[in-house]
Amino acid sequence: MGKQEDILQELQRARMNEEAVNVERVHFYKTDKKVNPKQEEPFWFVLGKLPVLVSAPHAVRHYRQKRIKMSDQFTGSIVYLLNQLTGCHAIATTKLYGGDPNSDDPCVYKERIGEICDREKVKFVLDIHGAAREREFDVDFGTNGGKNLLGKVRMLQTLEHNFRDFGLSRISHDHFAATGLNTITNYVARELRIPAVQIEINKQYRVPAQNSQGFHRLLGALAESIKELAQ
Q1: CATH code (residue 198)
Q2: What angle do CA 61, 109, 157 make, to 5 degrees?
Q3: CA-to-CA distance for 129 and 127, rounded, in angstroms?
Q4: β-strands 62-64, 139-142: how paired?
Q5: How many domains does the chain have?
Q6: Range with the lowest mean pLDDT among 108-112, 177-181, 199-203, 223-227?
Q7: Domain encompassing residue 70
């Protein structure tokens, strides 16, 4: 655990849990005010240097079947911080724009992902979501039964290895419907031919103010995975 402990101490010294709270407040605040995506940009995205894209489609509230759904708290901040820590590409929703990026077709969010992946020659996509605290896993990796890996099994092995090394050992697979035709990871694998994993994170690791140690372990596992996948 030597390397992992060094990384955790570095994240703690940088107070990444406090930074996450600030980022969430500034970029991913919760509102029911709807914007027109043709008039106002509903996404935050930044280009990095590593050929890995991280995504948080439910960082703010969204619409599903004409009803407003709650956000996956702190997934946007996680993506924001991963860009800072690793230099990966990142995208997240910041405005309620009338759709659901993980089920819509056509979908402006997926179109933006396609543009980034094509222009930046992205090799892997991690799509980050939130799961309820009562779920019996720390993290769930959705791969559509392995199909969305496109044969790149190293992607899943790298994620599992790092999450276990950082103490998130309760791992499940395809607990959620990553098999839905229009999910982001299915779109990325099917249309862009890029390996993709849908990552569902238990809420106990997405409360940085209450569980700083757990949040830093999560951040460390994701950051190390991104760095290894980029090699």
Answers
A1: 3.40.630.40
A2: 95
A3: 7
A4: unpaired
A5: 1
A6: 177-181
A7: 2-229
